[in-house]
Please model this.
Amino acid sequence: MTVSSLFHPPREWSARTAVIADGVAHTYDDLAARSRLRARHLLAEAAVSDLDGARVGFLMEPGFQYVVTQWAIWRAGGIAVPLCPDHPARELEYVIDDADCAALIGAGDTGRRIEGAAQERGIPFHEVATAKGGGLAPGLPDAGPLPRVGADRPAMILYTSGTTGRPKGVVTTHRQIEAHIRSLLDAWEWERDDRILHVLPLHHTHGIVNALCCPLQAGASVAFGGSFDPGATWERLASGEISVFMAVPTIYAKLLRAWDAAAGATRSRWSRGAGALRLMVSGSAALPVPVFERWEEITGHRLLERYGMTEIGMGLSNPYDGERRPGTVGQPLPGVGLRLVRPGTGAVLADGVEALEPGESGEIQVRGQMVFSEYWRRPEETAAAFRDGWFLTGDEAVLEDGYYRLLGRRSVDILKSGGYKISAIEIEELLRTHPDVRDCAVVGIPDEDWGERIAAAVIPEPGAESAPETLPERLDPWVRERLARYKVPRAWLCVGDLPRNAMAKVQKPAVQALFDVPRRPP
Ligand code: MLC
Ligand code: AMP
Model:
């Protein structure tokens, strides 16, 4: 049996820094020892020698404890289910229930938010203290065996929005995560002496695998920057201690705005500092060409844009050494099988970097060791997502002069805002449960900074309690209580009816057109 390699740092890295958080540097030894202890703790509490695929949900702010917990769950044989600190209770509990978590782990005030959920479900809640570097339950045995965790076991479930209602759990094995990591270590030439500034959320693949697991597999270090703040991020980038940065386009757009607002001397310092980095990557959403160009102008960096998806890990990337072409996502990464297929007919239009039908756009399909195994407990949706072993991404692209260019998603119901994938259907289904809403349609409207902004057109229920004009003001806080912050509509419109075709189906492009006039947010 091949065992997982995700949490076995070689002995020669022992004294190297793995994680820097809250001003404290933690070595690989520290990480190994503490995750071992926490794994023993999890096993002792469950009175088993192997968690054997039990799902363990964990909620904490980005930092050392997050990494210790992730490794501990893996080392004890469990499946890690990261929860998002920004999520309201309804979203957290949905994930806890859908993943059918057998235990929950929380750190600090953030983590204590799920203690009640554990009690209600009769599952253990492990509290991790957040004291710098510490936080292990005292008096537990350090010694004792840990299970041998095979690489083909499931390692993680990440929740992603789809075209149907609530998010689905994407299950990846240790081997699939290893393949994802290997491909990026190779393509982007990760080095032991690298240090990444980490500002991304830790419930999605970008923040977890690209920006955390990759450096930890390279013997490099991860410096957590806290929740994203443009000024603080510039200062860290300019500190001379950082060599790698990865972010979504919205973050680069926000950094550019902060730079524009800064004084001349600060600008020069920030530009010089960022210019000295080895690598700056953008992904998760389309990087606008003006952002690419402006970034190059002020830092000298041609941002390396790449394309990925929770289900496939990373698929395409501009070259590390060769030309990074704005508006494109480059070529297939090492180990990735990728082709373009004409919708409907199944004709292959491009295979890897070979254009079979030059200029014709099609759907990206992917296969390879990094592709996920299944949607958690959704066999039909899993089967529908593959054809002949190829995963159907739903993304449209064209291969031009050897570079892939993304054209958008095939579904109008999947939006991307701030790098987050959002299901219009999920928001619509929720809104329709509000007593004052008869019907609604949710769309994405283009936005320079956010990629898309979420907009909702609502038909008020006749005879609703108060005036329809004030409905958005009432819906906004109501939605915020129930959905993640990034799923809350930022533009609202009350309408008498929605644009429909002859079959009474709502026409989303016509709904988008209704928002052409800027509206006052609630
Ligand atoms: C927030 N705001 C928005 C918004 N989100 N406005 C429009 N559209 C949105 N989506 C508003 C808020 O109401 C607030 O306004 C102000 O913007 C600041 O909000 P915030 O939440 O404090 O923003 P911030 O913390 O700065 O977050 C922005 C961000 C964050 C870009 C840092 O969205 C983020 O971390 N995104 C990363 C997502 C990610 O990691 N995706 C990867 C998925 S994996 P006010 O008026 O209240 O101040 C994947 C695969 C792959 O995609 O390829 O990688
Ligand atoms: P997620 O499901 O959150 O993993 O988001 C994956 C989706 O993000 C992909 O299917 C694409 O639609 C989009 N995406 C990722 N990277 C890029 C990129 N560089 N350009 C455009 N879209 C991207």
Summary: Residues 160, 204-205, 283-286, 305, 307-310, 329, 393, 395, 406, 409, 416, 421 surround adenosine monophosphate (ligand 2) (CB under 6 Å). Residues 28-46 form the longest helix (19 residues).
